Amino acid sequence: MPPTPYRILMIAPTSFFADYGCHVRILEEARVLQKLGHQVTIVTYYKGRNLPDLRILRTRPVPWRAEYEVGSSRHKIAFDLLLSWKALTLVLRERFDLIHAHLHEGALIGGVLSRLRRLPLIFDFQGSLTGEMVDHNFLNPHGPWYRPARWLERRIDHLPDAILTSSHHAAGLLVHDFGVPSYRIQPLPDAVNLSFFRPGGGRSPAEIAAHRARLGIPPDRPVVGYLGLLAEYQGTGKLLEAAAELRRRGAKAHFLIMGYPAVELYRQRARAMGLEGWVTFTGKVPYEQAPAHLALADIAVAPKLSATEGSGKILNYMAMALPTVAFDTPVSREYLGSLGIYAEAGNPIALADAIAGLLKDREGAVRLGERLRRRAAEQFSWDQAGRRIVAIYDALLRPVAGRQAALTALKQEEAG
After folding, report:
1. Is 195 helix (H, G, I), strand (E, B) or coil?
2. What is the pTM of this model?
3. CA–CA separation, 61 vs 82, rounded Å?
4. Taking the CA atoms of the chain, what radius of gyration do you get in angstroms?
5. 125, 255, 335, 409: which one has the fewest Cβ atoms less than 10 Å from its Cβ?
């Protein structure tokens, strides 16, 4: 327990909790901070799944579309206005020591509140705002709104007292593309709960075999698994093309694609590509069931195309001791290092080649998975990440004049 527990307001401009991506980082950060004795309050949109061990406060629904699913949309302006009001009433009513904002909208809201209440602001940066909007086809990089959006992103990036980045690549992006002073940027790569994600997912070989049978997976085929969002920028289409190429070659494999949305769209595409009997779609997998589902795979694949977003699913694969094939991006290399099996980004034939290599060397694949598990334990545990977050909080709660020196020292310690 710390001498004085910090009271932390987390701003999460999303429908927390959902079973993917940035939600997992928010969840695990909040849990490890509470484990270290601190008090965390999460303010978020009106939709999402409540979790019994977290204090989650929600906005009111928008009156015109109460069931709207949040995404890259102009409706997010209304959601963020409601979130701003909820957070404002909260900081006026309760006492907090720090504001920890997720995503750019959270950093903008937090920037206003931090100045109003003179609280340090930490921004959890998980990728470029404009880069993500382009990836989601919500913003045209050659259109009239791109430069104003880029200007706004730059202004937001300069609001926080410290920025946590999910990769060193993102840290470089903030310095070189957005001019953020380097001392404010503290790399904090995504981490993984090693007691939760573990080889076999806590299930016996018989239980795993029975689960495979229930899903209709042939017992004599190695399973190539993917767990995450289904979308083009996530590489779902490229993964299906790679599966079709492997089938054309006569390879022996079965593809288990776990996640949502657009399940029916990709199921129809797989059928049109002649992949019936070769691909199983599970639909949405609750986070609590992720280890049991990943235990069905022999090989994991991470075909994400975005060059700016994190890819925390890779760490889950590593903790499960799954040999992992990924498109060759800076974030993938940061997680997997020399133990990754890489394919040229966006090239489904190269992806098929990489998967085929692991299928041919099953014993080598098992050894590779074991080494990846050790790498996850040594470099990407949430216990380590939690202690680093608290050290950054400590630096920001010093007198303003000493913050830069304290943050610089922390960064040097992390680098050395």
Report:
1. coil
2. 0.85
3. 8
4. 22
5. 409
